[in-house]
Protein 1
Amino acid sequence: MEKKQLLESFIHDNLDRAYRLAYSYTRESASAEDVVSDSIVKALSNIETLQKLEAVKPWFFRILVNTALSYLRKEKRIVYFERPEEMEQILPGKEDSSDLMIAEFLEMLEPKYKTVLILRFFEDMSLKEIADVTGESINTVKTRLYRGLKLLRIEMEDTYE
Amino acid sequence: MNKKLDHLKEQYEEIKASEELRERAEALFAKQPVGEAKQRASEAQPATGDARQPMDGEQPTAERTKRGEAGRKSSAGRHALWKRWVAAAAVAVVAFVGGLHTSESFAATVASLPGMEGIVRVLTLDRYHFDNGYMQADIVTPQIEGLADEKLQAMINEQLRKDSEEAIALFEEEKQAMEEMGLAEEAHMGWEFNYDIKTDTEELLVVDTYLYNVVGSSSTVHKYYNVDKKNSKLLTLPELMADHPDYVTELSDYIRKEMEKTNESGDGVYFLEYFTKIGEEQLFYVNEDGQLVICFDKYEVAPGAYGSPEFVIPADYFKWNGEN
């Protein structure tokens, strides 16, 4: 299939996913929509960099994540919590985080942790695919997953793979 | 998986894209015909004549080719979406300029204009230039000098300088983002911030600054400074229209009729269903004959191939006499 058509059908089928991911960073719908639009424009003008047709998801998500991060850099207003103790202050009593809400989840985590957690657990992407999105090594992705879960105080019974 | 994460995932999946975003996304695909995704700026000149030459004789950084028919076959929905998208893009790219060496060719251009014996003139204070073969930027900083009211002059110059700096910052940010994504060699970005002298008479100086940028598709955002030299002030539309309390309706009706006429004659595809009336911040300038010209940015009321449309208001409705 022609690359552009492939992208179009991918966007058609995965617009919700793209929007969710963008929203995870911007946490505001108008900006999230702009990030998605912007990413589509970038993807279209760089469609030739899509090497393998089956890699469209990590390829597009990479553009999307970078666009969202670049948006956040412009904003620079968002503060994240690095240590569990800090989060404790805003989430008193939520020791096991069982009633953690998605809004809190998105608010408290730094983008680098958020990205890997969302892609791994919500989007069911493999570590390799996540590494393709973030442009980092699989080991880095793993480390971030552990660290992210720790920040969330979530004990994992399961393995990552 | 873990039940806490399951719980989060359920909530996460409740986040859904709006219909608007869906339409907007579809429009982005519809807008770029297959094979043209990488085509550069295609800003054809509008019928009203928006021809602008680079002031210093250099080629514009972004290639400008005419692509007359592209993008003309659009549904009503798409028009509105373009506008939405472009509005978003415009927010992202609003920019302007400033520098301290006078561009000689610019000075020559100005000198050739009628009324240039006047004292007030525009100089190119600074020029930011970048070109690595993939990404180009040419951003100048115009400054006005010789205005009797120094406060007003300082205010305009400050705005020009800020707009220019912002254009540079945004370009650099975009460039960095492309590099980080490993797309530097594929980016095909072109940014130009420059100005035109629209009018230069004894009474009036009109500077049109525009930010033209290509990142995939192109957009142009204008800002007009209508400087009343005698009264040392910037003209505003409401002030000019002091004798026409219903000017918004009257001008809008006139423009809509002109659009209809053009569309019926087969020469145009204005977005009639989108244009309702001129806005509070409507772009305008006064030309050398004292006539009011209502302007629109690219995509605002017509497909991109039309460039930035202008509508000259008949002199029997309004003519500037230097008094308003």
Protein 2
Amino acid sequence: MTQSTPLIEMDKKSVVAVNSRTKLKIKKAITIASFLLPGLILYAVFMLYPMIDAVRFSFFDWDGASPSMNFVGFENYVQLTKDDIFLKSLGHNLLWVLLSLTLMVVPTLVLAVLISRVKKGKMFFRAGFYLPSVLSLAVVGVLWSKIYDPMMGPINVFLKSIGLESLAKNWLGEPLFVIPALVIASTWAFYGLYLILFLAGLQSIDYSLYEAADIDGAGPIRKFWNITIPSLRNTLNVVISMVIIHALKGFALIWIMTQGGPFYMSELVSTYVYKAAFSMNKVSYATAGSVVLGIIVIAFTISFNYYRERTE
Amino acid sequence: MKGNKHKISFLLVLLMILTTACQSPTSSSEDQTKKDSKEVKNESASGNDHVLDLMIPNYYNDVEKQQWASVVEKFNEINPDIEVNITNGDVQVESGKLPTLLQSGIEPPDVILMNAGPGRVSILSDVNLIQPLNNLYEKNKWKDDLRTFAYDLISKGENIYEVPHMIDTIGMFYNKDIFKQNGVEVPTNKNEFLKALQTLKDEGVAPITVGARNGYAIGWIFGVMMESVMGTEQVEELFYGDGKWNDPKVVEVAEMIADWVEKGYITKESVTQTQPDSKFRFLSKQAAIEAEGTYLITDLADQKLEDSVNMFMMPSFVDGDVAQPVGGIGLTWVVPTKAKDVEYAEKWMDFILSEDYSNIVLNLPDYNFIPASKASENIEPVGDVLKTAMKSIEDGSGYNPSVFMGVEAKEAYYQNLQGLVGGLVTPQEAMDNIEKGAEKDRANGFSLK
């Protein structure tokens, strides 16, 4: 009896220790969950569930309101491959990506570098250049429609006033100009965000690198190319990813300025699926188009990040 | 343990607050709208809890707003126990807003005044977003209350889903002062019409303005041209017979519009011009003619231009024929399937077809619609332009194609007509494309026969 007492006490102690460890684990799990759950629930309800449901709808022939729908397998996807306008829209999306990358990334980076060099009034320039980003896209759309107006728009009025009438075009009405014109408007609306990212990236570059380069006699272009660009590698990756994603899912500005016209010249997948779903009751067909676009966006993003990681 | 319970409860409450706080702005504003609407209803409940919720198109201007106020006042005089709550919105099916509103699950209005046409109404009726009104037609004998032309247009199918509000009358509105200054008379035949366009062009005046950026507006002028070049019967054949969009006669109309752009009668820039911009150009005397419906009348009143503008029908290009104004039913009343007070909606639609309504609106000098009711046939409108329009449809009306097309054909129609104005597609290709759309519609079961 006397020998067994310490054993029981030891057992009790170990039980208490196990209990307190379990409690600690539960407590830890609850703490982690309390941080993760709000975001996860919102993400699941507003992102994952609609996405999964969209994929499901794409295999049916739902019109958007009927209580019943028929399973059609991959029929909607097969039809998409035969749909000239959808394929044209995809092509426009790719052109939009290329133009966005060209117009958005390099000029914004150069602008950020220039602003970072300004000694006085840096805040003024930052705020000034960021200003377009705070405007609603509806306002931006109407504003740029007026700017591009072939008869009263300031661009054509200016060109005509300096005798360059032949250069005055119907910017939103000619096949060669409509998408570039829309991309310029889109760039104007969004470059502020990327400018801020670049400015933040520039601030994190170790200034001693530039001092060392100065001692070695490097010029501004060489410093930009050999110090600034490599140091901004991560920022550039983020910006390029964001520009690609944004370019592929752009909708509001096109809808306000051209609605995909004239004659489908500015039709993007997003405008096309919107019309199909809400003007033509072809909800399942439209979701199939959206799924294809979603896959392209994901593929682009993953490929780009994979490439980036490999080159690092 | 008790402490843990408190923590878990606290976390759950926090989660609920976060979920509520992070709801989308749309959802929040909808809640607010519902709340506001409830407040309005509660206020009205103090003396009256019978509220009829109407949804009508956005007002063009204050003149139209005043007109609706007069109409509602008259309705209240007859039905003092029903309060009318008007909401304005986009009632076009093409923009997708109306189908989205009805699909969204938000409590819909009791009755909606939407852009009419079998090609539009069927988008809602095919998916049961609006309800059939056969019983109401029978009960109220609405067939006898409607103009025969209007009733015929909406009663082709098994069910009737709408009560026509007005007859569209689209023709050529012209500025009298510009015509006079340039020595142009209102044309009465093909040669005079083409000569008038050339004279205006030679005098440096833009002959015709079109808001081709909005499909329906380029559709207006194309419909007017189809009526003149093809004649009503041949146009009818397209919708109710075996006509094809790429028939030589339709291609001829497409060639004519392309030719007018080429000759400068319609500026090529019109391809990006919106209808409101086109209207502004016309009203500010920057162009002599605009193909429009009688909707323009309130703008004329708003800008005190009643004496400067009138309308004429584009003369027929078919020997011995007289071109009709194109149209059909312009606006029509529909009742959402989920409407809560169908009884009030019924009273409202019955009022719209009554003599009381026609008397009120046709005695407004700036009223802009021809009522679809038989009661209106014997009342002479006070306004001159509306008088001209009403006279012009005495012998019937032509067809505004946009109203009679299926969804695929209509989308192709709008885009290809834009393409024609912009010189982006040949007339033959454009009509082939529209026909392809019509074929898809037919394959999907769309038919007006």
